[in-house]
Structure formats: structure tokens, C-alpha cells
Amino acid sequence: MADVDDSADNALLITELRLDTATEATALAAVRERLAVSLTAGHATAASERRTPSASTSVRRKFVAASRSGLLAALAVGTALGAAGHALVRAELERRAERDSAVEKSSVVAKKRDVLAPSAQMLPAALPAVPVSVASASSGVVTSAPTRPWLLPRAEIAQLEAVPSAAPGTSDSLEPELRQLDQARNAIAHGEPAQALATLAAHAQLHPSSILQQERDALTVKALVAAKRYAEARAAGDSFALRYPHSLLLDSVQHALGSIP
Amino acid sequence: MDRGGAGQMGGVKWREAQSEAAQLTVIRPRFPELFEAYAGYVWTTLRRLGARPSELDDLTHDVFVQVFRHLDEYDQARPIKPWLFGFAFWIASEDRRRVRRRPELVVDTLEAVDLNPTPVEHLLAQERRELAWAVLSELELDQRAVFILHELDGCPIPEVADGLGIPVPTAYSRLRLARVDFNRIARRLRSRQR
Asked: Which of B30, B56, B186 sits opposite A75 (nearest CB)?
């Protein structure tokens, strides 16, 4: 019967889907870098002096209301999502809106995909605290229902949209800066570290105290490694670790330094 | 949680100190590690939920912003994947709503084709993979979510229901419908191929 053949074939289709977990390593790296800026404190700590106190406290109060302090402690992060983070979330929204109106980029579709790479490569960074899903799978117990954020409208983000960008030194639109750093990242990915370094230097000159400084510094280390300027890379890496000890980018910076022969 | 008897070991104070200590040392997944371990999973999940390739980076970013903000609500007793899936499903649905408001954009669910010359068996595998993605992309989103979590991620239905915030019978019913639809769509697309 045709149904029997079909069900065997369909099982194959499901297997295909199960196995096709291709992700884009470079794209995930970019996501990590953006998250580092929008979320973690490495930058916020450095930027805290630049923040106007009133903006800083109001923003922080708002944020503490949204996320309990335990989260911050768990992250071993001094201040999280300060004005800098909010400005970036806002910039993200602006950027999204801008992009939404534009015609879709086709280049991303054509980007080379790295089968299974990111999660497999990054795993050695160890996740002792992350529970393994299998462990609790057996229980199958549905515990008391926690809040389900995805059932709520994105009111909080809308609220963020309304927060005026208050940090001095942050421009209203980060788009050009983000694009510049994207260029540098792509140059590194395409084996053109010299070009990446030039782009990063240009960014540093134009925006000496940018909100994206952490991202720039991390890219600089990677570009220096790629350019085989190992001594400079190590020095830049050391100062990155000192400056942003809790950065989400620290692992990737150390990974780059670890690749030095 | 209060497990001990009230009168033991000095009572309230002891328990308070204990729970305070527990709060400080509670093993929560650290965000950076969570990201390293599950960024790929979130990315893949968004892809399976039909996010446009050009949006995958933005949406993955959005999911982790929400994960970060709700990390303290995560219950260690629950498996992590359905929990993360809930955020991805939410973000993907929001995105879908946005896309629908812009009819000029086409939802591209099929993957980019590798243009390198490939041996015949690779070509067949690729055809099969493309068919599989095409079938998945036609499943209704609510059903697809249950299908992905259960059939592709291997989560038991009670966990699927918990992760999506739906009753267990609903999850079972969606799974059944999704399977029926999957077979029906696959048959239709295959007949068109031949």
C-alpha cells in the first residue's frame, strides 16, 4: 500500500529535519557581540561614569522592577542593562524598523553555513550550571506555572522605546557604527585582517568613546590574531580581560588568543 | 521550600539563613554559558518556525534578550529546551505578525542551495531535505511548534505543553493534527515533484 511507503519516507523526512541543525557561525558570533553590548556589564561599568546619574537611576529602577536582583547576582554582573543597554535595545528597534522597510538582504541567504559548528565548537567553554534536559525529562512533572512572558504583549519593549536615550556620547542612531563593525567582522571572516584593522581604527577615531567600544575591542583582538600580530593581540586581549572581566565576549576573545600557535 | 519541622535547629532564623544561602548559591544557568550551549538550538528552532533567513540573527538576539530578562524565573527542575522554545515561539510569532503587515515581503522558508557540484547521492539527500523543510513550512504554526518540540527535539508531550503554556490534551491533539497534515502535505508535494 502506498501509505506504508509514505510513512517510511516521511520518517526519513523527519530524520532530515532532525539532523539539519546548520547554523551560521559568523552570524552567531555577531549575535553574541551584540548581546554583549546590550546586556552585560563590562561596558556598562566602563560607561557608568559617562552616564548622567538621573538617567542611570531611573533606568536602573525600571530594570530592577523587570528583573529581580537574583539574576544580576547570578550573572556576577555589577550593573546590567544600564542606559547603554537601553540605548542599544532602542537602536535595535530602530534598526529593525529601518530594515523592515527595506528590501530583504539576499546576501545573508547566500552566506555559507557551517554545519553544526557553533554549538559544538563553543561547548568546551563548559556549562556546569546548565541542567541537562534529559535529567529531568524522566520526571515529566509539570511544576507550578511560572509567568509566561511569550503570552504577554511586548509591552516592556514598547516601554523601552519610550525611554529617551540619555547617555551622553551615544548618538541617536547606531546604525552607521554597527555597519562599520559589521564590515570589520566580515573582513576578519574573509581573511582580510588588515582591512578589518583599518576599519576598526577608523571607528576608534570617529567614535573614541562609543557605546560599541567593547565590541570594537573584541574585534580588534581577533583581527590582530588573524593578522598574525600575536604580541599585540595578547596585549590587547589582556587589557580586554581587565577592562571587561564579565564580558560575554571574553570567551571568544580568549578562544582567539588560544588559537595563537 | 520548607521541608524541615518548625521547631528544629532554632526554627525560623535557621531556615531563613539557609534559604538565603540557598538563594545566593543556587545553581542558575549562567547566561553566557546558556548562550554558548543553546544559541545554535535557538537559531535552528527559529528556522524551523519559519523565520526568514535574513532575520535569524535579529530574532536570535531578541530571544536571548528575553531569556536574559527572565532567567530568574527559570525553574531548574524543568528541562531547558521547552523553556527556551517558548521564547523562540513567542518571538517568531511576533515576527510573523510583523511580516504579515508587509505583504510585499515573501516568507522564504526554503534554504539556500549549495551551488557546489555534488555527487548524486548528495543531490538526493538535498532534495529530500528541501522537501522536508517545505513540508514543515506548510504546517500551521501552533501545530508546528508541538511537532518540532516533540518529533524533532524529542521532548515528551507534558514538557511540550509546559513549554508552550498549553494544556496537555491540547498538545496531544495538535501533535495528532500535525502528523496527519505532515503526511498529507508530503504526499502532495511528492506528487508534484514527480
From this structure: B30
Contacts of B22 (CB under 8 A, 6+ apart): none
Least confident of A95-99, A217-221, B67-71, B98-102: A95-99
B112/A67 touch (CB, cutoff 8 Å), yes or no: no
Per-residue pLDDT, A131: 35
When CB atoms are compared, the residue of B31, B61, B158 closest to A140 is: B158
CB contact under 8 A, B64 and A35: yes
pLDDT in tens, B141-161: 999 999 999 999 999 999 999
- Whether the pTM exceeds 0.90: the reply is no
- Three-state SS across chain A? CHHHHHHHHHHHHHHHHHHCCCECHHHHHHHHHHHHHHHCHHHHHHHCCCCCHHHHHHHHHHHHHHCCHHHHHHCCCCCCCCHHHHHHHHHHHHHHHHHHHCCCCCHHHHCCCECCHHHHHHHHHCCCCCCCHHHHHCCCCCCCCCCCHHHCCCHHHHHHHHCCCCCCCCCCCCHHHHHHHHHHHHHHHCCCHHHHHHHHHHHHHHCCCCCCHHHHHHHHHHHHHHCCCHHHHHHHHHHHHHHCCCCCCHHHHHHHHHCCC
What pLDDT, on the 0 to 100 scale, is given for residue A213? 81
CB contact under 8 A, B31 and A147: no
Specify the range with the lowest mean pLDDT, choosing from A161-170, B78-87, B141-150: A161-170
Instruction: Give me the interface pTM, i.e. the ipTM.
Output: 0.74
